[in-house]
Specification:
The complex is a heterodimer of chains A (182) and B (435). Chain A is of the alpha+beta class and 182 residues long. Chain A has five helices and six strands; from the N terminus they run αββαβαβαβαβ. Chain A has a four-stranded mixed sheet. A two-stranded antiparallel sheet of chain A has the order 1-2. Chain A is elongated. By secondary structure, chain B is mainly β. Chain B folds into two domains: 2-20 and 33-162, Rossmann fold; 171-430, Neuraminidase (6 Propeller). Chain B is built from five helices and 31 strands. Chain B has helices spanning 9-19, 22-25, 63-73, 95-100, 146-162; strands spanning 2-4, 35-39, 46-50, 77-80, 105-113, 119-127, 132-141, 171-178, 181-188, 195-200, 204-209, 215-220, 227-232, 238-242, 248-253, 259-264, 271-276, 279-284, 292-297, 303-308, 315-320, 326-328, 336-341, 347-354, 357-364, 373-374, 382-386, 392-399, 402-409, 415-417, 424-430. Chain B has a six-stranded antiparallel sheet, covered by helices on one side. In chain B, β5 and β6 form a beta hairpin. Chain B is globular, with a radius of gyration of 22 Å. The relative contact order of chain B is 0.11. The chains are: A alpha+beta (182), B mainly beta (435). The interface between A and B is medium-sized, with 23 and 38 residues.
């Protein structure tokens, strides 16, 4: 299975469709099919960034009977926080458990945890608060079996809101940590 | 009260040409308002009459209007209507007439175009009460420096009449955000003459002037995480000085200009470190299990004020510049952030949260038991920064659905909104003397 996964990584590297992605975690990543083959989006059609000949003919086989990254793209990816808090609430235990399980079952998987805040208060305190949120999620993941080396906590503070707006509904959606492929 | 000056088409044209290629980056509004909005009345304001400078309409800027706006924004002066008076620096004004207008001081001058294309700006300042001449100057400048020449005259007047240095010829830096574009800008202290120092598709925060006013440290997210850069404003040369694992942020210069204090998360948490102005190995200053950030040196370099949530919620603390134990400074309110210390170390400005309002307050550090005084009635105040003479603060707040920059006197009585474009303006910081 590890070998198969390495093939998959190679295919993605060649295709280089997802600029910062080394594992198939986002929507631009290869589509896994139930027949055990992988279709790289854009490959063979001449569209997208990869018009190089080699990538258009390469097909990396994928074993879908493994449990490592099947349905990983469907895992919940966001943990929300209370105002000025970096406590991971019990509501998000399923998010942490699912992602920790995926990481524990595939040590090659790496994730970046990005902390965010609402736009009230200072940009610098919010940057630190976002960092705290990201580190809290990383700690929760490692307590449930992920390895610290699989994870990096970073913060964007209030600089990348999920939604615009100056009301509690918008603020609540912006106080979050997002798990992303790395 | 609103004091509006007639927007001269020449001013618009000159600003457009001066900004040249920057226009492409920063969509200059077609109808930029050349005006200062002042709300409130100061306690003691010196009444001063500023007569239109002879032939100033032949130049691209109006020195008398710039000087008047500067002095009014300071809170220390009140402009007296000069009526239709026609005077220049060579005149012998009838002091009884100006006493009749209740003016305590009088300014007149002239603008003369020289053969080499420069402008000779001359002025004289009179004490109307004593009936004597206080002083005057002559300054030959390029057309692009007419505003600066006017700001320097305002500084001269301010210093002669208040005994303190003026800050009108200093510069400010701030960040403009428009859609996905982020620009670090440098402008005159009145918000005019803005120029782009850095244009980025990623956020920029926390600009900080070096003590010599030549460099800006700031945090840029251009590498998809927070990295501290130092940037020479005149040359555009820039260098990352803190790019460690995690987030690197909140730069503040030591008064000697050799080191900065920064917030790093490379060892977990957000902790304070010092680092050389060219980078290198940082030295850790705080060791708390909490957030320590937003550090700022006092003017004498002995202390560092910073924000920490080590007590369970963010409060402002103070410690020796070399690190060690910290003492809590703010006790009123459960959420106090963004400390700014006056140059004399006697006043602390910061932002306090009350309900959903984030409000700028000042705290008298020299008086034991003093309570923080709110000086705004807005609810999204951010990022206060002292003028180098300690008499004004610049800060960001929300007005009309966007982020704007304001200056205020320390008593909150005189506020001016800096001219803004369509962009959100944030993260203002006032530069040092010495321009």
């Amino acid at each position: 299975m590890k070998t198969l996964h390495r093939h998959l990584l190679t295919a993605i590297a060649v295709a280089s469709l997802a600029a910062c992605s080394s594992v198939p975690l986002d929507s631009q990543a290869p589509v896994e099919s139930r027949t055990g083959s992988t279709v790289v989006p854009g490959a063979g059609s001449g569209s997208g960034a990869n018009s190089a000949g080699t990538s258009q003919t390469r097909v990396a086989p994928v074993d879908v009977t493994g449990t490592s990254n099947v349905n990983f793209t469907n895992l919940p990816k966001v943990v929300y926080f209370d105002f000025d808090s970096y406590v991971v609430k019990d509501d998000y235990r399923p998010v942490i458990e699912a992602n920790a399980k995926a990481l524990a079952s595939n040590r090659r998987m790496h994730m970046s945890v990005q902390g965010h805040t609402d736009d009230r208060g200072s940009s610098e305190y919010n940057l630190a608060l976002g960092q705290r949120r990201a580190e809290a999620v990383v700690k929760s993941l490692t307590l449930l079996g992920a390895d610290p080396t699989q994870l990096e906590a970073v913060s964007f503070g209030e600089e990348r809101p999920a939604v615009q707006g100056e009301n509690e509904e918008a603020w609540a959606k912006n106080r979050r940590a997002e798990l992303a492929s790395r | 009260m609103q004091i509006g000056f007639n927007p001269l088409s020449q001013i618009q044209l000159s600003r457009r040409s001066a900004c040249g290629s920057l226009l492409a980056l920063a969509a200059w509004p077609a109808a930029a308002q050349f005006r200062v909005e002042i709300s409130g009345v100061g306690a003691t304001q010196l009444p001063i009459a500023i007569v239109r400078f002879r032939d100033e309409d032949k130049a691209s800027q109006s020195p008398s209007a710039i000087i008047r706006a500067d002095l009014e924004r300071s809170g220390a002066f009140r402009a007296v209507d000069p009526g239709g008076a026609s005077l220049d620096e060579t005149s012998r004004p009838d002091m009884s007439q100006w006493r009749g207008r209740a003016a305590d001081a009088l300014v007149a001058g002239s603008v003369t175009r020289l053969a080499d294309g420069r402008f000779d700006v001359r002025f004289k300042l009179w004490d109307v009460v004593k009936g004597n001449e206080i002083g005057g100057q002559s300054n030959a400048v390029d057309a692009s420096e007419l505003r600066l020449a006017a700001h320097r005259i305002a500084d001269f007047i301010y210093e002669k009449l208040t005994g303190e240095k003026g800050v009108f010829s200093t510069r400010i830096a701030y960040v403009a955000r428009s859609g996905q574009r982020h620009t670090l800008r440098v402008a005159d202290a009145d918000g005019e003459n803005g120029q782009v120092a850095l244009n980025s598709p990623q956020p920029i925060i926390s600009p900080a002037w070096s003590p010599d006013g030549k460099e800006l440290a700031y945090v840029s997210f251009e590498r998809q995480k927070a990295v501290v850069f130092v940037h020479n404003v005149a040359t555009g040369a820039r260098r990352p000085i803190a790019d460690f694992r995690g987030s690197n942020s909140a730069p503040a210069w030591a008064p000697d200009g050799e080191r900065l204090v920064v917030t790093l998360s490379r060892e977990g948490g957000s902790q304070l470190f010092t680092i050389g102005k060219n980078g290198g190995e940082p030295r850790r200053l705080t060791s708390s299990p909490a957030i320590d950030t937003e550090a700022e040196y006092t003017g004498d370099g002995r202390w560092i004020y910073f924000t920490s949530d080590r007590g369970g919620a963010p409060q402002i603390y103070r410690m020796a510049a070399g690190g060690g134990g910290a003492e809590r400074v703010t006790f009123s309110g459960a959420y106090n952030i963004s400390p700014a210390v006056s140059p004399d170390g006697k006043t602390l400005a910061y932002v306090t949260r009350s309900g959903n309002a984030f409000r700028l307050v000042v705290l008298d550090l020299a008086t034991p038991g003093a309570q923080p005084q709110p000086i705004t009635d807005t609810s999204d105040d951010e990022h206060p920064s002292f003028a180098p003479n300690g008499r004004l603060l610049i800060y960001a707040t929300r007005a009309g659905g966007r982020s704007v920059l304001m200056t205020t006197t320390l008593d909150g009585k005189i506020k001016a909104r800096l001219p803004s474009q369509t962009a959100d303006l944030r993260e203002p910081v006032w530069g040092p003397y010495g321009r």
